[in-house]
Every structure is written in C-alpha cells, then in structure tokens.
Design brief:
6 helices; GGCT-like; Hypothetical upf0131 protein ytfp; two-stranded antiparallel ribbon; binds succinic acid; GGCT-like_sf; EC 4.3.2.7
C-alpha cells in the first residue's frame, strides 16, 4: 500500500536554524541528483545495510504493481557507504516529495573519507510503513525488479544505475551484486 510521509517529515526536524544540512544518500540519491547542492563527498554510516525491501508505488512501480527499491535495515557491525551532499534546508521540500512513499528523515552521524564526522539527515523506510515489502531471495527480488516499471522508469534501471554508482565509489555491496547477477540473466538485452 502507498504511504505518504510528506506531512510527517515536515514536522520531524526544525531546520530553520541551519544555513546548510548534510544529506546522506545510499540509493537513488547516489545517481539521480535532481537537486542543487553546495558540496558533495563520499561518506559512510555505521550499523546499517542496503536492502531492496521497500515497495515503490510512485517511482519504479505503480499502486497496482509496485516495484522494489532500497531502504536501510539496522545491521550491527556493518557500514553503508554512499554519497553525502551539503544542501540548503529548503531543498528538503523537494526531497520530502521525492522520498514520500514511506521514508522518514532521521539524523545520523556520518563519516567522510578523511575521517571527519558530521551529523546529517538520511531517508529510511522503516519496517512498519505500509509500503514495506520485506525480505525475499536475490532471485525473487531480481524477478520482481525485471517486471516492474513506474513514472520514473524501469525498476531494473534503478538497480543498474545504483550498481554503477557504487562501482564509481569503489563499493561492492553483496546484496546489490547478488540481485544484479540474477537480473542480468532476465533482461531481454542480455539474451541477444
Ligand atoms: C536514498 O537514496 O538515500 C534513499 C532511497 C532512494 O531514494 O533510493
């Protein structure tokens, strides 16, 4: 079921006192940067891992046939590397709309490659949101992704662009890579 979190997010943090805010991106925010930023730098957060466990009814699927996109799941001992952007607080108006299907903003500590640490915001779709799909095998997730498409394009494009973005960051994510391997065998272009 879709789950619009736009109104809740507006109430969650008062950003009016900030000149700029760090945003941590781990999914589409790595490769689809449709917002202005002041600075961007690779960073990681601790205790979280990426999982294709969130339903997408608005971007990579439809309300009738939702796709699967990333959220973060608490995983002690793991780190999740992504891209951090320093943005003006008003950019969250756009981001809240883009990430509206089940994602809530949380403050998190993030660490940059030079060891510097900053607090920033991250969008996480928690397990209690109505659009949450939960675990499945890599093969099942790949099959689901291969068959899904929404207003932002094919679900497979989300995964393949993310995999490219992670490669550019020098990151190998076994969850993403496992699904990618299955997906490549399912896509028409890889059968030619
Ligand atoms: C993110 O990229 O940080 C949030 C999830 C997404 O938009 O894919």
């Amino acid at each position: 079921m879709p789950h619009d979190t736009t109104a809740i997010n507006k109430q969650r943090q008062d950003l009016s006192q900030h000149d700029s805010v760090w945003l941590f991106g781990y999914g589409s925010l790595i490769y689809k940067v449709d917002f202005p930023y002041l600075q961007c730098q690779p960073a990681y957060i601790e205790g979280w891992s990426r999982r294709f466990w969130q339903g997408s009814h608005d971007h990579r699927g439809t309300p009738e046939k939702p796709g699967r996109v990333l959220t973060l799941i608490e995983t002690p001992g793991e780190i999740c590397t992504g891209m951090a952007y320093r943005v003006s607080p008003d950019v969250f108006e756009h981001l809240d709309h883009r990430e509206k299907n089940g994602y809530l903003r949380f403050f998190t500590p993030m660490t940059f490659s030079d060891g510097d640490k900053q607090q920033g915001l991250v969008y996480i779709a928690t397990e209690d949101n109505a659009a949450f799909m939960g675990p499945a095998t890599d093969a099942e997730i790949a099959k689901h992704i291969a068959q899904s498409e929404g207003p932002s394009g094919k679900n497979s494009e989300y995964l393949l662009k993310l995999a490219e973005g992670l490669e550019q960051l020098g990151v190998t994510d076994p969850h993403v890579e496992g699904i990618r391997q299955h997906l490549l065998t399912l896509l028409p272009e890889s059968r030619q």
